[in-house]
Amino acid sequence: MKISEATISVLRNFSDINNNILFKPGKTIATMSTMKNIMAQADVNEEFNQEFGIYDLPEFLRAIDSFQKPVLSFNGSANLKIKDESSTLSARYAFADKSTLVTPSKTINMPDKSVTFTLKNSDYESVKKLYTNLSLPDIAFKGENGKIKLVALDKKNSNSNESTIEIGSCNMDFTAYIKAENMKIIPGEYDVAISKAKIAHFINKKVPVQYWIALEADSTF
Questions:
Q1: pLDDT band with cut points at 50, 70 and 90 for residue 147
Q2: pLDDT, tens digit, for every residue of 7-31?
Q3: Which of 85, 114, 147, 199 has the maximum number of C-beta atoms within 10 A of its C-beta?
């Protein structure tokens, strides 16, 4: 099996969410943070024919990256072999016991979609640059007077630095807080749904990947 660059890119992103991953038979891969407040799922071109766990996904990706033309070979055992099409180089990589992994057990069904909008990559990246440079720990999707704004702030300090950009319209007032460190999404444009059950769903409009991110408890609707 050859792993495409698109799938490698998704796996790198997933490794930012959790070092563990459990591959299951099929063309869908998923991960969940150790705090269980972020879940991600992607559809990939490759079809995996057996279940196997990886304890250290960044290490696994580095192993694959060590080959010029890597090919993965499965034999139904507790490991896989990585071979190089361009040489005789090979490596055996051991699987992890899935009982040691933090993995999602099911897909989240959004209980409701109180607010929906499109989040443009340029808008989010502009605010991300500022919350990174200003060390702001929180972001808020805020609906007020018919407008939705994306705000970067420190919600525990009313006098902190703050960045705001208008991103859409709405018919209700709300404030949905997310820890900035939990916004581990692949760059791109997203369809976003926010639930009163305090969860946000991000669906990438070009790459078949989606995220469910928990809102902070003090979010209001």
A1: very high
A2: 999 999 999 999 999 999 999 999 9
A3: 199
* Percentage above 70 pLDDT, the chain: 100
pLDDT value at 80 more than 90: yes
What CATH class has 5-100? alpha beta
**pLDDT of the residue at 83:** 97
Second CATH level (architecture) for the domain 115-214: Box (3.70)
Domain boundaries, the chain: 5-100, 115-214
pLDDT at 169: 96
* Type of residue numbered 22: L
Residue located via tokens 């040489």: 87
